[in-house]
Specification:
alpha+beta, 13 helices, 22 strands, elongated
Length: 550
């Protein structure tokens, strides 16, 4: 994003036009590196966001509601003490730097003064500082008072702006003319590396718009022109950048603040979605690891008891040959009368036991191994069912597109005991039911579950004549076409199959999808969430692209 001096100068002009003369009503700190200020402009009340986060740094108006901490952080308390009720004089940039200066006229019962709230929008070095008479009253981020500190940021220290880059200030026309007299190499790269306050994309814009002639005059006029046409670049629903001047194929906005607010809101929502997805996938992976470990233990015990029939055979052979054996023998080799080829079996003996006692020891060992195998069989089936269920959650989480998708999955994981509830439900509060994914196609409504629990609820809510779809031999969302007694056209069936394929673990453009009336779908007693059996189905090929284009 081009949070360069070029963009911030235009941002300051816009902010100043709205905020000059406004009065601060309320100050909050909803996040560790973000301050929100509610301002009454004389006509309306607006909220200004000042964000010093490395990835979200910016100053813009917003209507986004954010939850504030119960106890205000220290910097927020400092701003409330010094700026509550203050009147904004103007908003400017500090020279041609990435620093916004909000000047405030502050009046209390005992004093009257001017204070400046500096917003340094510099990526990971972004900061907010309150200054009076050139002395820092407080800062969002402070530095340690050691000898190696290049710039001291502490209450009581003198405010010194960051050291400027070793580049030409474009406001210095003489220096700019001298620089542009002999540009070297690629023009965009030349401007970015030699002219202060330009992001790479801004330098590319200037180079692309340069028609020839006096380069210095063109660069100066381009940078200091008040022309503004804000827009946001998006790619498949994900915001990638915002600009102060119009770009082809971008979403236009009336103001730069509106463009920034939209950009950061979408960006934060995407980050929150990905964070929640990672958290839920980690919980599923941890549960899978636990079940896989349990399965490995079961399989190891089964391997240890796998020779139960051989042990029984040895006991029977010993019993049949007691007359030929004596106490004190360490081993014997007996004819295997079960072997048609007439083979023999070598049998280890305990020399302290009689032949009959050795035979009984083999029978006891056989009975123990038999009981072990019988006990392990249902345990293995249970673990494999649990692993299959956990695997069914993975595509649901990976294909989640909106918060409701992950909220439904989180409720399911919490209900299954795989995730601890983050906040206890308030007593008496009615729980809001998350809706199914809903699509409309040629007058037919198509529903898709967001979680295994929703899949079960979708089947229960469907009518017997509705059509039910599920990816064949793959984990997927359950999809239902609400027919209302009508015949479903092939185009609608293909679309629904595409939805099913879209929210499955399958890859490719041709994913087999089974389809049958809901009356043929059964939920086995005690089955895991999302597990059903079905009959009388036909198989169609689902193309995920149809769901995206539909």
């Amino acid at each position: 994003m081009p949070q360069d001096a070029f963009t911030l100068r235009l941002n300051a002009l816009e902010l100043n036009e709205t905020l000059a003369g406004g009065r601060i009503n309320r100050i909050n700190q909803p996040a560790r590196e973000e301050i929100s200020v509610v301002i009454y402009t004389g006509k309306r009340t607006i909220k200004l966001s000042l964000n010093a986060n490395a990835s979200d740094c910016g100053v813009y108006f917003t209507e986004e509601e954010q939850e504030n901490p119960l106890v205000a952080p220290n910097f927020c308390m400092l701003l409330r003490k010094h700026l509550q009720g203050a009147q904004i004089t103007d908003v400017t940039t500090l020279g041609f730097e990435r620093i916004l200066a909000i000047r405030l006229h502050c009046i209390s019962d005992f004093s009257e003064c001017e204070r400046i709230l500096y917003a340094e929008i510099m990526g990971k070095y972004s900061n907010l500082l309150l200054v009076e008479n050139g002395i820092i009253l407080g800062a969002l981020k402070t530095t340690a008072a050691d000898e190696n500190c290049k710039r001291l940021i502490l209450p009581g220290a003198k405010y010194v702006p960051p050291t400027p880059q070793d580049k030409v200030n474009p406001s210095d026309r003489t220096a700019l003319s001298r620089l542009c007299a002999a540009p070297e190499g690629d023009l965009a790269h030349f401007l970015f590396t030699r002219v202060a306050g330009l992001a790479p994309c801004t330098a590319e814009e200037i180079a692309a718009a340069y028609p020839g002639g006096d380069l210095a005059a063109f660069v100066h006029d381009y940078i200091f022109s008040d022309e503004i046409s804000p827009c946001v670049a998006e790619n498949h629903g994900n915001v990638t950048d915002f600009f102060a001047r119009r770009h082809a194929g971008c979403l236009p906005f009336d103001t730069l603040s509106a463009a920034q607010a939209y950009f950061y809101r979408k960006k934060r929502a995407k980050a929150a979605l990905e964070g929640a997805r990672r958290r839920l996938l980690a919980a599923v992976a941890q549960a899978k690891k636990k079940q896989e470990k349990r399965l490995a233990q079961i399989l190891e015990k089964q391997r240890s008891a796998a020779d139960a029939e051989t042990v029984r055979l040895k006991g029977e052979l010993l019993t049949a040959n007691l007359y030929a054996l004596t106490r004190g023998m360490k081993a014997c080799e007996l004819a295997n009368y079960y072997d048609e080829a007439g083979g023999t079996v070598k049998i280890a003996l305990d020399e302290r036991l009689t032949p009959a006692q050795n035979a009984q020891a083999y029978f006891r060992r056989y009975q123990k191994q038999k009981r072990t195998l019988e006990a392990l069989a249902p345990q293995e089936a249970e673990v494999r069912r649990e692993l299959d269920y956990l695997q069914s959650l993975v595509p649901l989480l990976n294909e989640a597109e909106v918060p409701d998708d992950l909220k439904a999955a989180e409720e399911e994981l919490t209900g299954e005991g795989l995730l601890r509830a983050q906040q206890p439900e308030r007593r008496g509060k009615k729980k809001t039911e998350i809706p199914f994914r809903t699509f409309e196609k040629e007058g037919f409504t198509v529903y898709a579950g967001r979680s295994n629990v929703q899949n079960d609820r979708l089947v229960r809510a469907a009518a017997p004549d509705d059509l039910w779809l599920h990816a064949r031999n793959l984990h997927s969302a359950h999809v239902v076409i609400r027919t209302q007694g009508r015949k479903v056209p092939q185009s609608v069936l293909a679309f629904a199959a595409g939805v099913c394929a879209r929210y499955s673990e399958g890859n490719g453009s041709k994913i087999p999808v089974d389809c049958c009336p809901v009356r043929n779908v059964r939920k086995p007693k005690g089955g895991k969430a999302g597990f059903v059996t079905y009959s009388g189905f036909e198989t169609v090929l689902g193309d995920p692209a149809l769901a995206e284009n539909g």
